[in-house]
Amino acid sequence: MIAKSFLIGLTILTVLTSFTACGRQDEKKPADAEKKLNVVTTVAPITSIVENVAGDKVKITGIIPEGINSHTFEPIPSDSKLLAAADLIILNGLELETPTLKLAQANLKKEASIFSLGDKTIQQSDYIYDFSFPKEHGHPNPHLWLNPEYAMRFATLVRDELTRLDAKNKQTYEDNTAKFLKQLEALDQAIKDASATIPSNNRRLLTYHDSWPYFARRYGFQVIGAVQPSDFAEPSPKEVIRLIEQIRREKVPAVFGSEVFPSPVLQQIAKEAKSRYIDKLRDDELPGKPGEPQHSYIGMMVENMTIMFEALGGSTEALKKVDPAPVAGAHADYRTKN
Ligand SMILES: [Zn+2]
């Protein structure tokens, strides 16, 4: 008898305990999860900008994996679920993410919105059409974020849009953005100071991937060529010969490949033309791993500038003072290639 009532008591106690535990969990979950805006971003530098502004106040998922060709990226069918659950989808625009935009439009929930930063940052008259993005194809060069002035504009646009959709966190968005803008201003100044140490004749860029024209316009560089054709294939033999002659003639000290697009062709061109070949520039893959301070938009810019300016004969001293860490910590979900 004693044993039986003890067992019954124990069972009741267990049931009660698990009830309380469940009850507590159920109360906690919605308070945390339901009220957070669900934001989907595209390339990692934009994810990082949103992360700086939002901190942990929104859920952020970058849909385009780091290290993948963002220009040809096609979301997989299961990504439609991610897009359908989003309250806000933030893109660069200028036709960079057309397949993602189409899938987003097809799956968007009723009250959700799509926010294209590029179209609110520059006028059509400021679009650059060039080597890999010729005017006759009608697609402007989309690499706005490699110009920190535009990254500042992206940050304030994101702040205002998040505030519109989630006014209760207005103060946090304002504080984070103010801190982030200070860091971006420091980055901008450091790039100006460091590029001034490069011999003026060397402030010329020949790259594989055509991502630097908006950067070049701000800091007084000249993009003398980009090797990658507009269909992202390899250049023709005729084009290769022309490039080798151009590099020899113009005495370019270094040519730059990119992490995302390893190019044996550019390596060969550099060798033939007796120029240095550096294949470490990145336009949409952040250095380090999520959670590390350099895994950020600013970290990517500092690393790019350090590699580029050293190769062109400049000093990178000014860049060493720039703090790359996200102002409100690492919170975004970055996808990786593998
Ligand atoms: Zn690119």
Structure description:
The protein contains ten helices and nine strands. The strands form three sheets. It has a five-stranded parallel β-sheet with strand order 4-3-1-2-9, with helices on both faces. Strands 5-6 form a two-stranded parallel sheet. The protein has a two-stranded parallel ribbon with strand order 7-8. It is globular, with a radius of gyration of 24 Å. By secondary structure, it is an alpha/beta fold. The structure holds zinc ion. Zinc ion is lined by residues 70-71, 143, 209, 211, 283-284.
Share of helix, binned: 40-55%
Span between termini:
61 Å
Shape category: globular
Describe the largest sheet. Answer: 5 strands, parallel
Order of helices and strands: HEHEHEHEHHEHEHEHEHE
Oligomer state equals single chain
Strand content: 5-15%
Gyration radius over CA: 24 Å
What's the tally of helices?
Answer: 10
For the biggest β-sheet, the strand order reads 4-3-1-2-9
Helix/strand-derived category reads alpha/beta
Q: What is the arithmetic mean of pLDDT? A: 90
Provide the low-confidence segments as ranges. 6-30
Bound molecules: zinc ion
Tell me the number of strands.
Answer: 9
Q: Which key features would you list for this structure?
A:
single chain, 338 residues, alpha/beta, five-stranded parallel β-sheet, two-stranded parallel sheet, 14% strand, binds zinc ion
